[in-house]
Amino acid sequence: MDAIDNITTRNSARELIEPHPSAQEMETVFEAALRAPDHAWLRPSKFIQITGDGRDKLSQIFIKAAHELNKDLTETQIVKYTEAPFRAPMIIILISNPKKHPKVPPIEQIISTGCAGQNILLALNALGYGAMWRTGTFAFNEAISKHLGLEKSAEVIGYIYTGTRTGKNKKIPIHDVKDYVDVWE
């Protein structure tokens, strides 16, 4: 797949099934992630790759964190949070841990992790897999960070669900670039 086609045709896949990327493919995906812009080479990004029984563990973490945030969870919420890790055969947790630096503010380092996430999405697409970046209740959440054993300065900025795309591709609207770009000459 041509690089520009990969970028301009990538879209989120809601329905994902086995197989998920192999260990060798994931090494390539993470190599792409680590090519994200990173001012001062601070390496703020970390990733947790979850498959198989690891999804059970993540499900338990989601429920523990949800109970800490809301003691009055409804049965519907409990089911939703319990089942969330099983919407795909693989989940990649995106973690940003900004370092103190006189020239590189935390937001720039969080953006670097976001760029790493985009590189992951593009690499998965180039390899023929579907993926969807999810946030919601369990992103930017101190309870989740604690249950994942992260340092206090680290936080989850998203979850990339991946596997083999099934169902129809979502229609992506075509945007007129002129609506989004000002050109100064």
From TrEMBL:
Binds 1 FMN per subunit. FMN binds at R10, N11, S12, R35, H39, W133, R134, T135. The keyword Zinc-finger does not apply. It holds the Pfam family Nitroreductase. Keywords: Flavoprotein, FMN, NAD, NADP, Oxidoreductase. Its EC number is 1.-.-.-. Belongs to the nitroreductase family. This is Putative NAD(P)H nitroreductase. InterPro entries: NAD(P)H_nitroreductase, Nitroreductase, Nitroreductase-like, YdjA-like. Its cofactor is FMN. GO terms for molecular function: oxidoreductase activity. The keyword Glycosyltransferase does not apply.
